[in-house]
C-alpha cells in the first residue's frame, strides 16, 4: 500500500480544544473566522438594520431558554467539532479569533461609496454584545472601526446592564471632529426583556442581570441624551395584556425611545420545551401551563399574539411600534390589515 493510499484510508484525527479560561462560568472556545460582519443577514426585514449585522461570537455567555441560536447553529456543529469545539451549544462560549481586525479587513474590501452611505448595522444576531467587561471592550473597539471607516450608525441590543460602559468607551474615543456627527450619537442602545418581573426573567434567562438593573441602565442612557430603542421580547402570555403593555411603556419610557420592537415567544427548535421546563423549575407553574397551552394549540397561540400586539398598539406612540409576527396562510390577512399600526410580517 502506497503512502498516498494509506493516508486516504486513515480517518482524519479530530482535534479537541482544552479551554484555558471561562467566561460567565462557561468554558471558552476560540475558532478561526473570515467574517465578523454579515452584509446580507436577513435582519433588514425586521427593520433592525439595513440588512447588516456584526458578531464576534457564535455561542453566548448567557443561557436563555427561549434562545433560537442553538437550533440555528446546529448545521455548524461539524465545522465547530473539526476546530476542536465540544459540548452543548448553550453550555459553552464560542468566540471568533481577531474580530476587530477581521472587521477592519472586511470594511477595507468594500467600495468607498458603500462604506460612506448612511445605514444602520445591528449587533448581535448570535451573542450578547455586553455580557461582561471583556465583551464591552471588544464591542467598543469594533464600533470604533465602523465609525472610523464608514458613515453607518450602530444598533446594539443586550440583556446586560453594561451598555452604559459601552457608551462611555465610545464617548472617550469620540474625536469630536468639527462639522461631523459625534460617535456617541451614532449608536442606538436597547435592552431586551419580555417581562418586568425579576423572578420570571431569572427563571428562563439564566446568567443575565436582573431586569430591574437592565431598565436602570437604559434610563441612565436616556437621561444622558443617548439614543435608545425598546425591545419587549419575548413576552409570555398575560393575565392582563393592557396592564402589561402599559407598565412596559412606563418602565422603558417609550417617549425617549426612537422605536419599540415587540415579539411573542415562537417555536424555534426546543424553545417552548426549554422555557416550560425552566418556568416549572422556578415553581412558576401557572405561567408554565399557559406557555404549554399556546405551544400546542395554534388558535390559542394566535389569540395570545394578537392580544399582545393590540395592547402594545394602544401604548406605543404612533409610528414607533415594530411588532414582529410570524404569519400563516390563514392569519396573514388579519396581520396585513395591522401593518399601518406597527405589525411587521415575517
Characterization of this structure:
This protein is of the alpha/beta class. It contains 14 helices and 15 strands. It has a nine-stranded mixed sheet. It has a four-stranded mixed sheet with strand order 1-2-7-5, with no helix packed on it. Helix 4 (99-108) runs parallel beside helix 6 (133-149), helix 6 (133-149) crosses helix 7 (163-173) and helix 11 runs antiparallel to helix 12 (285-296). The longest helix is centred in the C-terminal third of the chain and has 18 residues, at 298-315. It is globular and about 50 Å long. The chain starts with a helix and ends with a strand. The model is unreliable at 1-14 (pLDDT under 50).
How many angstroms does the end-to-end distance come to?
57 Å
**Biggest sheet: strand arrangement:** 3-4-8-9-10-12-13-14-15
Estimated helix fraction: 25-40%
Q: Radius of gyration over alpha carbons?
A: 21 Å
Main pleated-sheet profile: 9 strands, mixed
Number of helices: 14
What descriptors fit this protein?
single chain; 346 residues; alpha/beta; nine-stranded mixed β-sheet; four-stranded mixed β-sheet; 14 helices; 18% strand; disordered N terminus
Summarize the structure.
This protein is α/β, with parallel strands linked by helices.
Tell me the layout of helices and strands:
Elements: H1 3-9, E1 22-23, E2 26-31, E3 37-38, E4 52-54, E5 57-59, E6 63-64, H2 69-72, H3 77-82, E7 93-96, H4 99-108, H5 112-115, E8 120-123, H6 133-149, E9 153-158, H7 163-173, E10 187-192, H8 198-204, E11 205-206, H9 211-223, E12 227-235, H10 241-252, E13 260-264, H11 271-281, H12 285-296, H13 298-315, E14 321-325, H14 332-336, E15 343-345
